[in-house]
Every structure is written in C-alpha cells, then in structure tokens.
Write a structure and sequence with these properties.
This protein is of the alpha+beta class. Helices cover about 30% and strands about 25% of the residues. It has a single domain, classed as Alpha-Beta Complex (Fumarylacetoacetate hydrolase, domain 2), CATH 3.90.850. The strands form 2 sheets. Strands 1, 2, 3, 5, 6, 7, 8, 11 and 12 form a 9-stranded mixed sheet that branches. A 5-stranded mixed sheet has the order 4-14-13-9-10, with no helix packed on it. The chain is globular. The N terminus is likely disordered.
Amino acid sequence: MRRLLLATAACLGLALPLAGPALAACPDDAEVAMHATNLLAGRNSAPYPALTTLEDGFCAQAKLVAILSQHWGRPVGYKLGLTSEPVQRLFGVPHPVRGTIFANTLRLRSGAEVPANFGATSQVEADFLVRVRSARINQAGRDHLAILRELDQVVPYIELPDLGLTGGVTGPQLLAVNVGARMGVLGRPIPVQATQAFADALASMTVTTTDDTGRQIATAPGRAVLGHPLNAVAFLIEDLAKQGKRLEAGQMLSIAGYSPPTNVAAGRTYTVTYAGLLAEPVSVSVRIR
C-alpha cells in the first residue's frame, strides 16, 4: 500500500509527509486506506485514534487525497473550512483549514438531483467558488483588487460535504478527512469585475439558504467569511506557500461556508440565494431524492 500511495502521489504532484517525531500520530497507510474504502462506499469511520496535531492531519490528508483521486478524478483546486471565528473556536483552530477538491466534485449544475444517501453523513452547505485566471495571483498579497485581477469567475455553489466520521471532530481530524470535501452543485458563473464596487458587493451581499417549504435555514453577509471572501483567497495563498505550493490558472477555490452543514432530507430542494452581488439576486439549487 505504501508503494502505491507514493507512486500515485508522485504522478499527482503531491507530497506525502514523512514519518518522524513531529508526525508520530500520522495514521498509517492501512488506516487511511480503510477510511477511504468506507468513504467511497458511503460508510462512516471512527475518528483516527491519537491524532492531535495539524501536521499529522495534513499527513493523513495527503495519503487520502492520493487514493480518492483514483476514484474522483484529478485534483482541480482547494476547499477552505473553518472560515469564521465562531466555527474556529468550536474546533480549537485559530485559522481556516484546507482540503483538496477533485474533478468529480464540480460536475453537477444547478437543479441537479442527488440521492439522500450520497455520503455517509450527507449534508448541504451554502458556499462560494472562485476560479483562478493567472498564477500571478500568488503575488497579490491581501490587496482585494489585485486578487480580483487574477480571478475570472465567481460561482454560486452548494457544497454537499461528507465528513465520514462518527463522534466528535477536531481540527486535526477535519484535516485528515480532507475537510469533508465530496461533491457540490454549481450555479451560473459570474464574470469578475476588478473594481472596488465588485469587491464591496462581495462583502455586502446577503447569502440565504432555504428549502422548498419556504423555511429559511441560514442567512449571512459576504463578510461573514474572514471579514471579506477575498481574505479567504489571500489566506489560501499564504497557507500553500508554507508548503512550497502555489495556485495555478484554472483552479477552483471553495472559499466560504455561509451556513452550517445541514443534514439533507429526501424529497427536499435546497436553494442558496446571493442578493446584492449583481443587480438581481442569483441562486443555485439542488434536489434531494
């Protein structure tokens, strides 16, 4: 199994952290392979025992991504979790955490139907995607206009996450399970305008999640994500740089969590609406069968 993981990681350009004193609790290959098997089959796994550091969580994640990419397609970008202070406090991590998203993560379009048991812990969450136009974004720093100049699309997005774990989930456990990335539903792409007005609209827009009974599940302003959704992009650039990685043109970034993950119910349609981003509200929806 170790040889398979190393070979797969080499083909994908992934770095598998080496075991050592700082990674004493990194799950071994067999543990990660068992978790991947359960995840692919829609079954929960117990949390990894003795996983206490973010470094060990990243170690486990790299192994998991190497396996999942054989089933869910090549990595096409990143997902951020823990993008608000209340959630960070809940998990005991003072910053966001990242996972990898795959080609099959982004294959569904608004109005798609998915089975209620699409995962072990099938949930729905209001999210938001941006697409990288140029690798020059790595030099944009925290300047919102500089970031916008290197993005070409923003996309309404409903994430359908799946932690695949029983029991409590800590920050390291969340990293180990690739931040729950599984699949999602994309709305109509919106061309980016590299203007202060567009940057302001991203912060001031209101994101509301409802179901087809008219029940409002959650609502939040754009700035609920780290004060501004583009701050999430800046964080991701900095976080990747710590491991010698960079954003590349064409990558998709899932940068927001505008509602708490909500367990899905069969027969319901969930809609996320973004008001204030454009002249008219835009939305994305998914039907659970």
